[in-house]
Amino acid sequence: MSRINSSLLSVLKKYSILFILIGLVLVISVLSGGVFLRITNLLNVLRQISVIGIISLGVTMVIITAGIDLSSGAIVAIVSVVVASLVQAPNAADRLFKGGQPWPVFSVLLIGLLIGALGGLINGGLIARFKIPPFVATLGMMTFARGWAFIYSQGRPRGSLIPQFEIIGQGSIFGIPNPAWVLLICVLITHVILKHTLWGRYTYALGSNIQAAIVSGINTNRYILLVYTYAGFLSAVASIVLTARIGSGQPGLGMSYELDAIAASVIGGTSLSGGIGSAGGALIGALIIGVMKNGLDILNVSADFQQVMRAIIIVVAVIIDVRKNIKRS
Amino acid sequence: MKKVLSVLVLLLVAGSLLFAGGSKETGAAKKIRLGVTIEDFNDVFMRYLLDQLRDEATKVGAEVIAMDGKRDPNEQIKQIENFITQKVDAILIHVIDQTIAPRITKLCNDAKVPLVYVNRKPTDDALQGAKVVAVASPEEVAGKLQAEFVVKKLNGKGNVAILLGSLGSAPQIGRTKGTKEELAKSPGIKVIREQTANFQRPDAVAVVENWLASGDKIDAIIANNDEMAIGAVLVLEEKKMKDKVVVTGVDATSDALKFIEEGRLDMTVFQNGGAQGRGGVQAALKLIKGEQVPKFVEIPFEPVTKENYTKYKK
Question: Sheet of B132-136: strands edge to edge?
């Protein structure tokens, strides 16, 4: 009997953050009189968390290596304006390239993803090759990419995108919004990378003990490059989804998204000191932030008070989660 | 490695010194120099305002030294101090926060530098001094125009939701105040929702989705700017509810005008950044020459709807 109890306790501890999410959902469902649980609202939540969720997957991998990525939001911006400028309707009033035709969507996606990956690659290069602390390197990329977003777009939003592109963010398949599909695919891919590949195992090794990783012959530079490139790539994915959703490329897009993504990652159990974290955790972290925002809006909590509530819920969630880790070690 | 880096740094520093020297030389010709500080270079409207200021200054042969206030009042005060040290002929300021205006007025009065408040009118105590004037469009008026339009559309009866800009920013406070004061005059109108979407389209999409999910009946959405209004329109169209909800914004951006043309957005408000910029430069020049300038020139906001939008298309 006591053995069953202790194993139940260990399950509770292991998945404490999941139970926090479930608790949050229950409270909001009751307070909103069931409105929260309506299918349309649940789909809203999925759509609303998709962008931060996708970014937080890459950020989680970076944090597992004991790094940090502050450039996600700015990469969202540069990818957004470049991609949008290539798929503007020919007669758009704010068309960046006057008189041109929209490019094929597939090639535009490729360009957008390459730009994101390149941004991440530069981050990784600065960190691995020049030994610049990740905080500084990605802070540099943050202002660098944001600056280029403004230069490229001439400081203006670029709208009137062709419907073939907008469908990525606005359409749905089997009743599930496309952004949610993209998020789920990214979660799966990231999960497989982390748990079932050498790359994933080395990612944890880098964060737990980099000296040991070097001594055991791991090419640490290569894996740092890979991880940051992947994070940049995912920021580009998120940017494309968001740009298509709102039908406009904007240089000011994604402001402070990096902080939301880091928050989602940490709420999801990723340790800022490295070595611990998972794709599922990041998803749950993003869900907790999203459910909270959605719930507070539905319950008509005032804007000023929402900020305070969110802070309290986030900190309490992490306190509960951290206590679990202390007890285990 | 370190050597290569230090050489690079040296080259960079040397290069920037060269450029600094270059800009000084052009200033040596006895040109009128105007110090301009704007709240945020990243904002579409503010950038347009700055462009208009520059164009007008170039026309009259004056030089503009433009500074980005970066949304930081303290930064803006530092910039004013620097302008005074550089002995510019006049200062034009798009003031970030009304509360720092008295301080800025005092700095300029003490240094005897003419000062023009552009776009935002400070409180009267900050308009003291012989060479301090304002060329502006009071934000309250924009909000009032939106409310008037909505009240008329709803025949004085219905539920209104307000999408707020970044909390504490001057347009958010002013426009919301104007909207609420005007709505309060109609007892049949109720403000049932108020939430910030930070002037951003994606934020507005999420907020309006959540509002609609709550099941409350909303007859009109008044947004502090066009980007948020467009976000609301996108959600309403997705839920096939656009014909039941009146949506208005402020700014008359090119996107918004297109939405109005297509019948998707009901109304926006045009803020005449061009007239503000030109008026500001002209007022500054008159002050420099010692001519009479009215204390406050109001550049009116103008309502834009399907009936008159063509006038505003660029």
Answer: B63-68, B33-38, B90-93, B115-119, B132-136, B296-298
What is the full per-residue pLDDT of chain B (314 aa) written as tens digits? 556 556 555 555 555 554 444 444 444 457 899 999 999 887 778 888 999 999 999 999 999 999 988 888 888 998 999 899 888 999 999 998 888 898 899 999 999 999 999 998 888 888 988 899 999 998 999 999 999 999 999 999 999 999 999 888 888 999 999 999 999 999 999 999 999 999 999 999 999 999 999 888 999 999 999 999 999 999 999 999 999 999 999 989 888 999 999 999 999 999 888 899 999 999 999 999 999 899 999 999 999 999 999 988 76
What residue of A is the nearest CA neighbor of B237?
Answer: A170
Number of domains in chain A: 1
pLDDT digits (tens, 9 = 90+) for A165-221: 999 998 889 989 999 999 999 999 999 999 999 999 999 999 988 888 888 888 899
Write down all domains in chain B, each with its CATH number in brackets. 30-137+272-300 (3.40.50.2300), 140-270 (3.40.50.2300)
Residue in chain B nearest A37 by alpha carbon: B213
Q: Inter-chain contact A156–B207, Cβ cutoff 8 Å?
A: no
In this complex, the residue of B42, B167, B207 whose CB is nearest that of residue A304 is: B167
Chain B, 168 to 197: residues with Cβ < 8 Å from chain A are 192-196
Residues of B in contact with A291 (CB under 8 A): none
CATH code for position A288: 1.10.3470
Is B164 at the interface with chain A, CB within 8 A? yes
Distance between alpha carbon A291 and the CA centroid of its chain, in Å? 16
Range of the domain at A141: 17-328
With CA atoms as reference, the chain A residue closest to B196 would be: A303
- What is the maximal distance between C-alpha atoms in chain B? 75
Sheet holding B220-223, edge to edge: B189-196, B158-164, B220-223, B246-248
Name the minimum distance, in Å, from the CA of B130 to any CA of chain A.
37
Distance in Å from the first CA to the final CA of chain A:
25
Query: Would residue A5 count as lying in a domain?
Result: no
Q: Does B68 touch chain A (CB under 8 A)?
A: no
Q: Is residue A92 part of a domain?
A: yes
**CA torsion angle A76 A77 A78 A81 (round to 10):** 120
